[in-house]
Specification:
homodimer; alpha+beta; 4-stranded antiparallel beta sheet; about 45% helix; DNA-binding
Chain lengths: ~250, ~250
DNA sequence: CGCCGGTTTGAGTCCATTCAAGAGGAGTGG
DNA sequence: CCACTCCTCTTGAATGGACTCAAACCGGCG
């Protein structure tokens, strides 16, 4: 296991807080175990008391809840570089499920080690806090998306978000990428039904806003899609590397 | 201005991290300015670059966004003891609006002072991070609420949430409290329209799940409402005082 | 008293859902 | 190589929950 396994984490934290050599070392030295996990496996279940957080090294995962009538709500999609489960593991009892979409590689990091590091290296703690604040920003946008946009705008919006995030993570281009979600999963992430997602995607295509093949999305005119999807990247708080906030 | 103005903040942070005397002092010593703000005033607007966070001392405020077609999405309701605007002020550019619902007293704390404190007293920083994680948990539940529950369940759920939070903040009882929101605001917090909120509240009343007067809510049988509203308090991560996580 | 914001009610409409069935692809096993 | 299964995607028709539009009601307040 190379010592640089956790370097995506360092990269991410550096966006927020200028870490000196010792601090970077401390992050890289976090105890962890890398595992390959199949698709559609649970990493954490609601009500669990998880002892580890995980850093996504490859693949995709979702955060979701099952409500009373059995239907599912997806609140986030995680990809390479994202730290999932800070929410769950730090707060003690998991309030949502984390499930892989595809085969993934994840680095499991003990909860206690993260807390100790945050106390020992406050600037690292600050950066992790910032990362959580960005998660919050994304949740708020999803709330707005689900509650106040129609189906077509809503789907356009999530397509824009994925495009930017995938591009930022080096997994594709915003104008052409592989979408690792079924229409049913898209439905659960947008508060729609799979049938209506299907019809709305077709409508987006008919309007010339996107092109589709099996699981890939193409965007001919990004600006036009952004406009139609009521999308603005501000809420993602994407930052250029090597330009920490402080 | 008494030195104990910020004590609600100490109380809140203590839930997560056992702070020693010096750390408590450091929190209380945060520079701040207390102001009385009228109802329906903006504390922060989207796109602002706020320089302060604010601790709510009394009254109510909401976080909201206006989407492309002009409609509004409320993502959170803040009350006494809540720190609003960490999200906005720490990340630089505000991604949502914060607006008072009622007359409020707020303590404005400079963003830089909070960041400095988090670095100087890492356990305080950790506690603030935890508080942000709880916010995230609430956002996820709201996403589930808005996307996958019908109107009646959705409203019942938010009524349960407010009951518990108000009781926890010492502002009423879960079975009888003043609700500081109009039906239009409830609509924007649940992804419904004001008209449908009205009809659904009446239906909740007709089913004997709640009683209403002008702006107050009564719950005759809490357990029955919880059940009908698919409510479980887990996501609020309410903790007993004097029992820090570590 | 008249205004105003909020609540209530009715009637008609529509966006998204439900139900149902067929088509396309990938994987499995005989 | 084909039959079979399973999952996802696609399409049609009918339904319904929530919306829109509109008007009346109500209490507080200048």
């Amino acid at each position: 296991m190379p010592v640089s396994t956790l370097s995506p984490l360092v990269r991410k934290l550096q966006l927020w807080s200028a870490l000196d050599g010792a601090e970077q070392e401390a992050v890289l030295a976090l105890p962890h175990k890398v595992e390959r996990v199949d698709g559609s496996k649970y990493l954490v279940r609601e009500d669990d008391k998880p002892t580890h957080s995980c850093l996504m090294l490859s693949g995709f995962a979702i955060c979701h809840k099952i409500v009373g009538d059995g239907s599912r709500s997806i609140s986030a999609v995680q990809m390479k570089g994202d730290v999932v489960d800070l929410q769950n593991s730090l707060l003690g009892v998991a309030d949502h499920n984390v499930q892989t979409l595809t085969q993934t590689e994840v680095a499991f990091i003990p909860r206690q080690a993260i807390m100790d590091l945050a106390v020992r290296c406050p600037k690292v703690g600050l950066a992790m806090w910032y990362d959580t604040l960005v998660d919050g920003s994304m949740f708020r946008e999803w709330i707005a998306n689900i509650s106040r946009r129609d189906a077509i705008t809503r789907l356009g919006h999530i397509i824009c978000e994925f495009g930017l995030r995938l591009e930022y993570a080096g997994l594709g281009s915003r104008t052409s990428y592989e979408l690792p979600m079924t229409q049913e999963q898209l439905a659960d992430a947008t508060g729609l039904t799979a049938v209506h997602v299907n019809r709305s995607l077709k409508e987006l295509e008919a309007r010339g806003l996107i092109t589709r093949t099996v699981r890939s999305v193409g965007v001919a005119d990004w600006d036009r899609l952004e406009k139609a999807a009521d999308f603005s990247a501000r809420y993602l708080h994407l930052r250029e590397p090597n330009n920490p906030l402080q």
